[in-house]
Amino acid sequence: MSFAKCMVIFKQPFSYEEKTDRPIIGVLTQETDGHVTKFGTQYVAASYVKFIESAGGRMVPILVNSTSEQIEKMFNSINGVIFPGGHRLTNTNYTRVGKQIFDLALKAFDNGDVFPIWAECLGFELVSMLAAKRDLSSGIVDRKFFTKVDAQNISLPLHIPKDYKNTALWEHAPSNIVDYLGRNSVTYHNHRFAITPQTYRKTKHLQDFFKVVSTSKDRKGVEFISNMEGKRYPIYLFHWHPSKAQYELRTDLDIKHSFRLILAAQYLADFFIRQARRSSHQFSSEKEERAALIYNYKMAYVEKLLPVSQAYFF
Q1: With the C-alpha atoms ordered 11, 234, 24, 94, is the resulting torsion angle positive or negative?
Q2: Terminal CA-to-CA distance of the chain, rounded, Å?
Q3: C-alpha dihedral sign at 67, 69, 72, 73
């Protein structure tokens, strides 16, 4: 591929100015339970760290037991955030911290300060509820908003609309990759609830905030939304797990690892980290930056305890 064609592929629809060539991405930690607590009270899957690094970024954990003041300071130090997949949404520090960062990101963008959010699986559910102004305090799943689906441990095709060139997420994706994702059961899902197109159409706040950029169908043929992106804000929602194709090579999970799927995952990593390069946030000193980086922590092999192979604990 020529350099000119490569530049076309990675052109973004937002006005683009690279403000850092050393982007740092925060990833929300999640609280541990059961036998996993012997490693620590919070964790982050190592696949997110590798995903970020594959596109030239670095990662810092956002500890969900931090104070509001500490979270705001971290927000002003990093260039983007990932809300990772997980298992608990209501009544958790993950939700509290996620809401604070979501609110800060919207306020920053309205003031001309770019701060991209990548929200995956559990993160998809949290951010969609925040955008739709749903109640997060009840402690139970909102059945009027989420539909129960049969989409645990399964790889599915994406239905990407024919006008995908009008989306930020897919506009410059190679057409053969888009076609591959649409024709093959390769995107890994692991969730019990989802938002249907019908719920999206009747939820005004959600429609106003997000554009649907792909759907999928569960084992029983129920259609649900698998990707959304902000109409105004650089916020990207995934109800599937792109990085698992590259970094979770487990045989007990229905994760695919084909060459084209790896290319698709890498395209998405590059897309998100390039959005983060538009942020001018930075740590107050190099010493503070070094102290925050994930390099200060060790990975543990946890395949028998969690649905990931490796994780960092805190």
Answers
A1: negative
A2: 43
A3: negative
Say which of 189, 191, 239, 241 is annotated catalytic: 241
Name the pLDDT band for 6 (thresholds 50, 70, 90).
Answer: very low
Summarised one tens digit per residue, pLDDT across range 229-273 is: 999 999 999 999 999 999 999 999 999 999 999 999 999 999 999
Give the C-alpha distances (Å, rounded to integers) separating 266 from 172, 192, 224, 260.
13, 27, 24, 10
Higher-confidence residue of 253 and 138: namely 253
Percentage of the chain surpassing pLDDT 70? 93
278 contacts: CB under 8 Å, gap ≥ 6 = 14, 16, 17, 18, 19, 114, 116, 234
Is 159 known to be catalytic?
A: no
Q: At residue 218, does pLDDT exceed 60? A: yes
- Please report how the helices 259-276 and 175-183 are oriented relative to each other, as an axis angle in degrees rounded to 10: 120
**Strand ranges, E, within the chain:** 24-28, 30-31, 42-45, 58-62, 80-83, 117-120, 147-156, 187-194, 210-217, 223-230, 235-238, 299-301, 310-313
pLDDT of residue 140: 66
Residue 114: name the closest of 123, 122, 105 by CA: 105
The reply to whether 6 belongs to the active site is: no
pLDDT at 89: 63
Residues near 160 by beta carbon (within 8 Å), at least 6 away in sequence: 170, 178, 181, 182, 213, 214
- Which of 261, 52, 49 is closest to 173 using CA atoms? 261
* Structure confidence by residue, pLDDT tens digits, 145-190: 999 999 999 999 999 999 999 999 999 999 999 999 999 999 999 9
**Helix or strand (DSSP H, E) at 200:** helix 197-201
Q: Which entry of 121, 189, 191, 239 is annotated as an active-site residue?
A: 121
The DSSP bridge pattern shows strands 235-238 and 117-120 to be: parallel
Tokens representing 176 are 């053969």
Residue partners of 54: CB distance under 8 A and separation at least 6: 246, 266, 269
Helix (H, G, I), strand (E, B) or coil at 311: strand
